[in-house]
Specification:
Elements (H helix, E strand, L loop, with lengths): L2 H31 L6 H30 L5 H5 L2 H30 L11 H26 L9 H25 L8 H14 L3 H25 L4 H16 L4 H10 L3 H19 L5 H9 L2 H9 L4 H55 L1
């Protein structure tokens, strides 16, 4: 068996990993596009299959470049084939798109466990995610079709092949966007009430008396519900305690908000999520010191962007997240205004001090001038 044959086998294996994985993810995506809630199984499947897709992409690149490098007539003779040029362009697009999928689609899936896929996602990001899905599917299948079409070797220009690829991609992307608008029907009760509550909070405007309770109530409500449910189900004490401790650690330790989102989404029950919230807010009070009131805690959160993102990540719903973010933003602005007032007071004091020193210097110079005269 020649080296080229071995490389071709690896090349085909990489394509099988990539195409097979993408088709599995597409099937799962179709169900989510109908409005079904994201489950932990969806997240686990996506992460597991993504490993094979990434491995397939690496194998395709490595084996393909080696096949070009060991060509009998040199790499230039192989690269002169317009079909291969077009295939390389498509694989480059596929690789860039994989980065977008890793940074946009996967975090979105993890964040919305228990909710519809596009819950709380604006239209622009939704379109980008659907576009990434279209690019991924076509960019894996299209090179396979090119590889099978041997009659195109050295005949059809690369520009014409890429034009066909672009037209197919545009058609598939439009189809995905239409599916996202026409088929997507989120199955989440209370989403309308949540959005209305969030808008009412935003319309209320700044108010010093209302800001403090709103920011902390999210933790107090979880505490009350958690204590009631825990008393009624002693068998779940250990798992609840572990979840609460994880929440404390997330607040006090240098845990990233992304890790908090993943840990929170991986909890198996709503009770454990409530305990996670309770632990997070308990640690926040510990961090603020004994006797800290709500204003002090909100100022602490407003001054720490990472902590603010951690708390927002465990909000029970979109309305609570919106109310919390709005309240913290008001607190942050008030703190900035107070700091600016202190800076202006200091500036005025320095101006007065400098003026007084200049006046004293003039008074001391005047007698000396008179004596000299």
């Amino acid at each position: 068996m020649t080296p080229k044959t071995i490389l071709l086998l690896f090349h085909i294996l990489g394509v099988v990993f990539g195409v097979g994985g993408v088709l599995m993810l597409d099937i799962d995506l179709v169900r989510l596009l109908r409005g079904s809630k994201v489950t932990p199984q969806n997240v686990d499947l996506t992460k597991f299959v993504s490993i094979f897709v990434k491995a397939g992409l690496i194998v395709v690149w490595t084996s393909g470049l080696l096949i070009i490098a060991i060509a009998p007539d040199g790499p230039a003779s192989v690269l002169a084939n317009p079909k291969l040029q077009a295939k390389l362009v498509v694989v480059v697009v596929l690789t860039i798109n994989a980065l977008f999928v890793e940074t946009l689609a996967l975090p979105l899936l993890v964040r919305n466990v228990g909710k519809p896929l596009f819950h709380g996602v604006d239209q622009v990001r939704r379109s980008v995610v659907l576009g990434c899905g279209a690019i991924s599917t076509l960019s894996w299948v299209f090179p396979v079709a090119l590889g099978l079409a041997r009659e195109l070797n050295g005949i059809v220009p690369a520009q014409l092949i890429l034009l066909n690829y672009t037209m197919l991609l545009a058609g598939l992307a439009i189809t995905m966007q239409l599916a996202g608008r026409l088929v997507y029907r989120p199955k989440l009760q209370g989403s309308v009430e949540g959005s209305e509550a969030s808008s009412k909070v935003a319309d209320a405007g700044p108010g010093p008396s209302a800001s403090a309770p709103d920011g902390i109530r999210m933790g107090d409500g979880a505490r009350a519900q958690g204590q009631t449910a825990r008393a009624g189900d002693p068998a779940s004490d250990r798992s609840n305690q572990r979840a609460r401790q994880a929440g404390r650690d997330a607040s006090l330790a240098s845990t990233s908000p992304e890790r908090v989102i993943g840990d929170f989404a991986s909890l198996g029950s709503e009770m454990e999520r409530e305990q996670y919230r309770i632990g997070l807010f308990d640690a926040l009070r510990t961090r603020g010191g004994s006797g800290s009131d709500a204003d002090r805690l909100l100022e602490l959160v407003a001054a720490d962007e990472v902590l603010r993102r951690k708390i927002a990540a465990v909000a029970p719903d979109e309305a609570a997240r919106g109310a919390f973010s709005f309240t913290v933003e008001k607190v942050r602005r008030r703190a900035e205004d107070r700091m600016w007032a202190k800076v202006m007071d200091w500036h005025a004091s320095m101006v007065t001090l400098n003026a007084a020193e200049a006046y004293d210097g003039a008074d001391r110079a005047a007698p000396q001038t008179a004596v000299a005269g």
